[in-house]
Amino acid sequence: MEQAVTLIILLLVIGAVGAFVSGLVGIGGAIIIFPMLLFIPPLFGIETITPHLASGLTAAQVFFSTLSGSISQHHNPAVNRRLIIPMGSGILVGSLAGAYSASLFDASIINIVYTGLAILAVMLMFVKVRPEHTKEHFNPVLLFITAVMIGVLSGIVGAGGAFIIVPVLLALFKAPFRSVVASSIFIAFISSIGTFIMKSVTGDVDFMLMIPLVVTSLIMAPIGTKVSKATNQSVLRYILAALIAAAAVKMLLEIM
């Protein structure tokens, strides 16, 4: 009984942190939630969270946190539909395929995919794009194809994909930072629909453990969004890079 209460408290805290970060830097929170679910409960003697279960709970948290974040960003003038439509449709297709294929993989494969994505994201975050070099118009076909590939990989770990969408749009497509942060939460939400449904179907989502994560997600994601609007772009960029780097290093050490 005591262990169950401890787990619920931990899930509340993990959900709050992940959702706040989600709203702050325009990601779904998976970059924080997944490793926290794997590494924090064992510190309190709880060994029941497997990579498969962590990916399912992450998918649930991402779905609700990006839903909440999208509602908060609905009237943001920085939202770019030219990014959302092609990437949203592509990442939905990819996430469905990725979430289904994850049920066929060993747990170690999920950790390896997550680590690879995190390392790639960190590398891309340090590709500097000057404001005068940013673009407002993009090739929709290329956006769609890129989103499908991101969706497949992020779907495997239960992520909405925003933690890789953000650096890809910044470094490869040279989209304006503020527009990327505002739009990526919508793209991640669309992706999370497919991932959450497929993870539920394959039995990776524990709906009882999901509740604490969801409750704090709905509360904290809008708060993160409000703080984001008042925070310097460079600060947000460094926060995102630091979070991804920390998660990548931790996961890499576990694999090795």
Automatic annotation (TrEMBL):
Give UniProt keywords alphabetically. Answer: Cell membrane, Membrane, Transmembrane, Transmembrane helix
Q: What Gene Ontology cellular component terms go with this record?
A: plasma membrane
The UniProt entry, under InterPro entries, shows: TM_pro_TauE-like, TSUP/Inactive_protease-like
Lyase as a keyword?
no
The UniProt transmembrane annotation reads 7-40, 83-102, 108-129, 141-173, 179-198, 205-223, 235-253
Record's Pfam families?
A: TauE (PF01925)
Statement: the UniProt record of this protein carries the keyword Transmembrane:
yes
List the subcellular locations: Cell membrane; Membrane
As for membrane topology, the entry says:
Multi-pass membrane protein
May I ask which residue range the UniProt record assigns to the signal sequence? Answer: none
Q: Which family does it belong to?
A: Belongs to the 4-toluene sulfonate uptake permease (TSUP) (TC 2.A.102) family.
Q: What is this protein called?
A: Probable membrane transporter protein
Species in which this protein is naturally found: Macrococcus carouselicus
The major lineage groups are: Bacteria, Bacillati, Bacillota, Bacilli, Bacillales
